[in-house]
Amino acid sequence: MLFHSLLSFRRDFKAHDTDIVLASVPKSGTTWMKALVFSIVSRNHFPIDHSPLLVNSPHDLVLSFECDYYLKPGYIPKLENLPQPRVFATHLPHHALASSLIDSKCKFVYTRRNPLDQFISQWHFLLKNRLWPGAKMSSLDEAFNMFCDGVLGFGPFCDHLLGYWNASLENPDRVLFLKYEDVKRDPYSEIKKIAEFVGLPFSEEEEKAGLVGEIAKFCSFDKLKNLEINKTGIHYGPIKNDSFYRKGDVGEWVNHLTPEMADRMRKLLEAELTGSGLILDI
Ligand code: A3P
Fold first, then answer.
1. For ligand 1, atom 26, which residue shows the shortest CA distance?
2. Is residue 234 part of a domain?
3. Is the CB of 245 under 6 A from ligand 1?
4. Residue 146 covered by a domain
5. Could you tell me if residue 193 is left (phi over 0), alpha (psi between -120 and 50 degrees) or otherwise beta?
6. CATH number at residue 236
7. Band of the pLDDT at 244, cuts 50, 70, 90?
8. Which residues are tagged catalytic?
9. Counting beta carbons within 10 angstroms of the beta carbon of residue 170, is it exposed (0 to 12), middle (13 to 18) or buried (19 or more)?
10. Pocket residue to mutate for ligand 1, from 246, 250, 253, 257, most atoms within 8 A of Cβ
11. 44-58, 98-112, 141-155, 179-193: lowest mean pLDDT where?
12. Domain count for the chain
């Protein structure tokens, strides 16, 4: 995001109390969360077998502040007429958000992921995609050092996490902290949790009709990955839709990182998070 665009976002964006913002470090499951939250909020408009997700990437249904709306310097997007509730996404750290978001009563859904898996996912993504002309991905070792130095993709990782974590402690009804691994293990409960948090709980009839399970299945890795729209098409210039679906596994880092690297990351994170009450359990 260019400096001018960030300024414009911070100055011009007007939050609504009903807005929902999906926040995450890249490669923490943003695409998945976009599909899930879109399905939850639009369930009265589209039965799942007619979901717009069948023909649109989740990234085209839930747009991001920095990658979409405020990407072009000088362009002020018209957001007042978006369907309600408006759903946005961001990788920006909490301290970089527009003050109108902080001052409103909007809700944040923050997804975090085991940083070892998140790092590996990011490394693969950067290897495959040139985010700007001439961009060159470093070796795994170099990228790992960049992560540890806090200069890889919206880092430092802990600052990002702690910004939203502290906000969730101050205002638990405004920031929901989710774990990629929990959504993977028990999508049913997590989908219900999200729906309740954003003020759109599933009714007894919806639950009996199996709607929660349908959303979980429809947004599963295998289903989304294999939709034609997610195999083809281009998202954000050079990035292909299929780049957002690699393995979708938990604990896959063991195939790439040495025990020493994992240990270095653990120690680093432990030192940064001590006293915060946030335990990463990695
Ligand atoms: P891997 O690279 O480990 O496979 P983001 O959407 O934030 O860019 O994160 C991408 C990561 O989420 C990738 O992880 C991708 O495979 C995984 N992912 C995408 N869709 C998913 C889904 N429906 N369920 C689980 N994981 C998913």
1. 248
2. yes
3. yes
4. no
5. alpha
6. 3.40.50.300
7. very high
8. 91
9. exposed
10. 246
11. 141-155
12. 1
Q: Does ligand 1 lie within 6 Å of residue 248's CB atom?
A: yes
CA 124 to ligand 1: nearest atom = 2
* Residue corresponding to tokens 């996912």: 121
| Residue 32 CB less than 6 A away from ligand 1 | yes
Q: What is the mean pLDDT of residues 103-128?
A: 95
Confirm if 224 and 230 have CB atoms less than 8 A apart: yes
Per-residue model confidence as pLDDT tens digits over 20-56? 999 999 999 999 999 999 999 999 999 999 999 999 9
Nearest ligand 1 atom to the CA of 121 is 2
Q: Tell me the chain's radius of gyration from C-alpha atoms.
A: 18
Q: Looking at the domain assignment, is residue 21 inside a domain?
A: yes
CA–centroid distance, 220 to ligand 1, in Å, is 10
CA distance 197 to 109: 9
Residue carrying the six token digits 């995609």: 129
Q: Is residue 30 part of a domain?
A: yes
pLDDT in tens, 249-278: 999 999 999 999 999 999 999 999 999 999
Domain of residue 87: give its range: 2-115+155-246
- For ligand 1, what atom is nearest to the CA of residue 28? 7
Ligand 1 neighbourhood includes 236 CB (under 6 angstroms): no
